[in-house]
Amino acid sequence: MKISARIQLGVVLASIVLVIAACKSAETKKAEQQRAEELSHAKSNHEPIDSLPPVSFAWMKESNAEKRWVDSVYNNMNLTERIGQLFMVAAYSNKDSVHVNSVKKLIRDYKIGGLIFFQGGPMRQAKLTNQYQAISKLPLFIGIDAEWGLNMRLDSTFKFPFNMTLGAVRNKKLLESMGIQMAKESKRLGVHFNFAPVLDVNTNPKNPIIGFRSFGESKENVTQSALALMTGIQESGIYATGKHFPGHGDTGTDSHYALPVIPFTKERIDSLELYPYKKLFKNGLSSVMVAHLNVPAIEPQADIPSSVSKNIISDLLIDEMKFDGLIFTDALNMKAASGTRPPGKINLEALLAGNDVLLFPENIPLGIELICMAYQDGVLTEERLSKSVKKILQHKYRIGLNKYQPIAEQNLIADINPPQNKILQQQLFENAVTLVQNQNNILPIQKLENERIAYVKLGDDQNTAFLESLKNYADITEVAVASLDSIESQFAEFSKVIVGFHKSDRAWKSQSFTDTEIQILDRLTQKKSVILDVFVRPYSLMPISFLDRFSAIVVSYQNADVAQRVSADIIFGTTAAAGRLPVSINAKFQAGMGIDTKTSNRLGFSLPELQKMSSDKLKLVDNIIETAIAKKTTPGAQILVARNGKVVYQKSFGKFTYDATAPKVTNAAVYDLASLTKILAPLPLLMQNYEQHKFTLDTNLGTLLPYLQTSDKKDITVKQWLSHQAGFEAWTPFYKQTLLANGTVNPTYYSKIANQTFNTRVSDSLYIIGTYRDSILQKIKNSKLVPNQGYKYSDYTFILAHKYLEDQLHSSLDISAYTHFYKKIGARTLTYNPLQRFEKQLVVPTEIDTYFRRDTIQGFVHDMAAAMQGGVGGHAGLFGTSLDVAKMMQLFLQKGNYAGEQYFSSATFDTFNTRYFETLGSRRGLGFDKPQLPGNAGPTCGCVSAESFGHTGFTGTIAWADPKTQLVYVFLSNRTFPDSNAPNALSQQNVREQIQKAIQDAILE
Hints:
Elements: H1 3-44, H2 64-75, H3 79-84, E1 87-91, H4 97-110, E2 114-117, H5 122-135, E3 141-144, H6 163-166, H7 172-188, E4 193-194, H8 219-235, E5 239-245, H9 266-273, H10 275-282, E6 287-290, H11 310-320, E7 326-329, H12 335-338, H13 345-353, E8 358-359, H14 364-376, H15 382-398, H16 412-415, H17 420-432, E9 434-438, E10 453-458, H18 464-473, E11 476-478, H19 487-490, E12 496-502, H20 515-527, E13 529-535, E14 552-555, H21 561-572, E15 604-605, H22 615-630, E16 636-643, E17 646-654, E18 671-672, H23 676-680, H24 682-691, H25 701-704, H26 718-722, E19 750-751, E20 760-763, E21 766-768, H27 772-782, H28 796-809, H29 813-825, E22 831-832, E23 847-848, E24 856-857, H30 864-867, E25 878-880, H31 882-893, E26 897-898, E27 901-902, H32 906-912, E28 949-953, E29 957-962, E30 967-973, H33 985-988, H34 991-1001
Parallel strand pairs: 1-2, 1-8, 2-3, 3-4, 4-5, 5-6, 6-7, 10-11, 10-12, 12-13, 13-14, 15-17
Antiparallel strand pairs: 9-14, 16-17, 16-30, 18-25, 19-21, 20-21, 22-25, 23-24, 26-27, 28-29, 29-30
């Protein structure tokens, strides 16, 4: 052992001897007085109940059993043990054994009463808590600063919103729910005190230490918010601590480093700073933390911080305000306290001033020695000591430390991170995000077909969730500003610019705009319609002098992913703006203001439980598809579930192919939708034509398609045609008629080079003669109907629909579908011939074709007949993501209405979603597939309603919607890869149907 270490050890041992000697001497001197003083104290506890603040928490009420336990424990303590109870020592779970051993020494030798945990992790803290409690003669209080949950101090824990964000929430019941969740997690970790809520009214925007930790600048809002949080915490059996008494909200100094001055009159302090305390005292606040402040109006001596001021604690807090709960000092190692008093002395002064618990003290042996000496000298009376110690013991009894149980370490991490937290966080941000300016009701953005929208990121923190969420709704182009002079040219083509300001969400990080960023905003707002969304505290907007030039301003408070997603939802109207500013920005944007918006019925996003579905049960979907991929039923898949107009499940699995180096499937991957094309492209256009009286259900094909007048198909009605009751052949492999005997393409029909004759692209390097589409239509005309065959599914139906629509609309089917529907609803990936819009690596391949195109089919339609028509078919050819397919299905589910626009009437939809040949054994509607009839096979799990509708596709797809449950289910895969002629394991194993059943079973109502 080094000499210096020996000297330090000697000093410590000497301190212990002195403390014990002093305490024993004092015990002898006071022994005769002790019983009488205890009796006197006991009488003082029997004041009329109406003279005390009412307590609304049953577990915190006094009882005879409590009194007996407190008296018994107190009477069996020596003076050292009693004084030790006053000390709550700092503990860390991220430090080494030297720190751990020093804490253990304080517990063993000085009998300290509690620990306040700081940085570390929950499992490490639990293990240490169990160790510390095991060696403590009397169970320890465990406290923690958990203003936004355990995450304020611990990793691997959930981060709730900051108080300033909560101050924007009008529904205070949500804050109470947050308090409940925080308390449950604290209790599970063996914590007894949450040093929250913050009661400081932040009237000083430059406050360096409170700021975002305050609920705002309005005393009423602070009080209502804090009361709700306190109620939740204490209802759940954890002590809440109001801080920082008498009020730290209007300071410009950080008390960790210097002593702040509160230069206001007592009347002002009483009416503002003390307002929340008075209200919470009446509602049973269990404890208070006293700040280190210079408050001349109450404590005239400038060198006496509030934490050691008798005037502030005993006279004001206890006598005048009648507070009889537990009183904590703020951390005594802070410079505002330790800088004014030598170590040890401040502990005694804090106790004499009226504090009960000395938090984070320095030099505990010296502090205890000085308190013992004060007791011996009569400076500290037995009555004063017993008042605090017994109050501490009362609180230990009420929290259950008379029957202490160690923390169970099993499942700890899962228990303190329950799924309810994400649900509550979603609700909190939905209610917090605040729209403060909305000129000409620009938000929510509605007419997407008229917009070209740019997104600009400012700030130096992540923005992924915001940008991805914006792109869920519309085609958004991210633009990086090259220079101030380039702004006009860079943004000339855009109708709107969304600017996201993203700064670190970590506590106390700077959230200011740079001068350059303000200049960028200045230039943009001079020329363009700009929507500014700031993921920072409202104060960050104060330096901007031209706020009135923004078309809209959204304050999202924090740069959390959930805040980014909710903000995008508000911009596009799937969530209503509801928040209110907790603090003022300028004369126009004052605390309490906020603009409400209404929601539109655009497909939005939510969490399963908020739409009455079970997250746990939806996990079965993961298991089913992962098993299917492992069995090589498909290389990968996208799956989406929406309920009540909200996507609650959107995941991607597997890879593009079975190759180990193949890219992983993401939600952005574009799939060949195969026969989903039928209901997503021609069918809604047919509905519009029907509504415009272009035909009735009894109109015949000879009228719709005059070229069929001389065929046996001329008398087929629309009802028969779209219900697959026409007697058509199921399918014709047209491509085979264009091959040579050896299986290669016939040069009469194909060329590897495009020219005026061979101008229809079939694959990467293969072009078909441009007139061949007419040949397909002629072959259909010449085909023979199968008499009396009843229901027979046929691709001919929608190949003919393709012809009819292009004749009617004088536009190609792909353009008509895009302009009439996809562009308007923001389904930006729904497209024919995806390589015209997307990079090849974004499109999932469908097959290694060895029989026709002799190529890997990627970015070209798998269906041969559609490929021979240039990739655009009424029966196949459409590509897209699960999300954009779901948008069209939601439009159907809403009977033609989407984002406030009526595309066709409810009556028209019902006409097409009707079975007209059910008595003949057909399950089909008009274009739509329907659930199987009893006793028959079909496309669904057999667990959906008869009103449900959808379609399946050859490549391994399904899109299904159910009006009864308001569910949309989309499954996209490339089960045809690498060989579409291999057995269809996806269908044989009922993978799509199993998933649909799991989704139905996840419904909670």
